[in-house]
Structure formats: structure tokens, C-alpha cells
Amino acid sequence: MKNPLFHLILFLTTYDYSTAAAVLTRGNALVTSAPRFTTRGQNYRVVIGDTLVLPCEVENLGTYVLLWRRGASVLTADKMMVTRDTRFRLVDGFNLEISDVMPQDAGDYVCQIGDGGNRDQIHTVEILVPPSIRTSPASGQLTARKGGTITLECKASGNPVPSILWSRKDNSLPSGEKALEGFSITLEKVDRHQAGVYQCTANNGVGDPVTVDMQLDVLCKIHYNNL
Asked: Where in the numbering of this chain does the Ig-like domain appear (predicted)?
């Protein structure tokens, strides 16, 4: 004989959650006191790859079924997992654990009492991502002609959006400054004194700052004396 919750899960995957919530009880017993949440909805910021536990505790749940959903998708119903994503599981009752969190896990998670009263608790999740850098060109090798103009670009991604700082290895920048902020720097009237290793550092407070080197070579005209 199939578990009664099998039919519940089938129902949840057939109808939208608002329709299902109106009839979700575990049996015919009466509930003497209205169920209520003893935890509160919160905002969570978690680093990619970590494990997150979203709390949901209810008093006087009685015969009602507790749901976890995200948008229109039901993740759990009572103690049964509806989602096929094995990173999700229930721990210590109805708390929802998400392991190895990914950027796509960001958003609102709703713990809902299936009593038709639209009583729910909402947790908002933000996924923090360490900085990564993409240089242009990807090789990090640049060549400029003496007297010309060249732009060094460094694009960083992450959450929050990283700040970018330019510096020059073992030397000051051509402007005389030790460091400049921005995704690019432009060098004008280039000469051999501006050749060297330029460093782009991205930092957003998540993990360690990331630095990449860009080698700038300057081509100078060679003048031959007539013999």
C-alpha cells in the first residue's frame, strides 16, 4: 500500500500550491488551537559552496501539512521531499537545509501552513560569490608602439560587485600614483619607461582579493647610423 503522502505529492505536482494549501491536512482530527510560527522570516547572505539552514518551527500544527516552496515550486510537503534536488533536505523537524549553495539558489523561500489561511514565513537568500577576473586580452600580454595610446582592461565578476584597483609591480603608475580604481587605465604617449608589469586586483570582501598581472611591452623605433 502506498504511503498516503504519495497522493499528496501527486496532488501538489498537479495543482498550484494555493489550491493545494486549502485542503492540506494529515487526517480528519480537529485542531483545537490555530497553528502559529515560532520562528521569523530572515534575510540570509551565504557564500557559494557553503551549507544553509532555513528555520521553520510551528506550534499547534495539528493535522495540517507544512510546505516549503520557492515560487510556484513545492520543495517539501510534511516530511516528504518533493524536489529532486538532493542538495535539499529537512533537518531537526521542518528546517530546510541547502548544501553546496549555488548562485541560482538566491531568492525567496516560503514555509507555509497548509490551512488555506495563506499563513507563511519568508526567508530571503543572497548568495555571495568571491571575485574572479577576466582580462583583455586573455593572455595578459600587451604590446604598444612608442608614442601611441593603449588601454588596459580588467573585468571582474562576483557578488557583491567587486571593486578594481590598478597598480604597477615594483613601480608607480605613469600618473605617479601607487594605485588607481577603475576597470581600465589608458596610457598615452607611451614610451619605454611605461613598460612593465601592471597588476589588477579585484576585491568584494568575499574570500581573498584576486590579482592578475598584465605585461606591457613597448616597441621603439631603431635608428641605424650609416657607416
From this structure: 35-128, 131-213
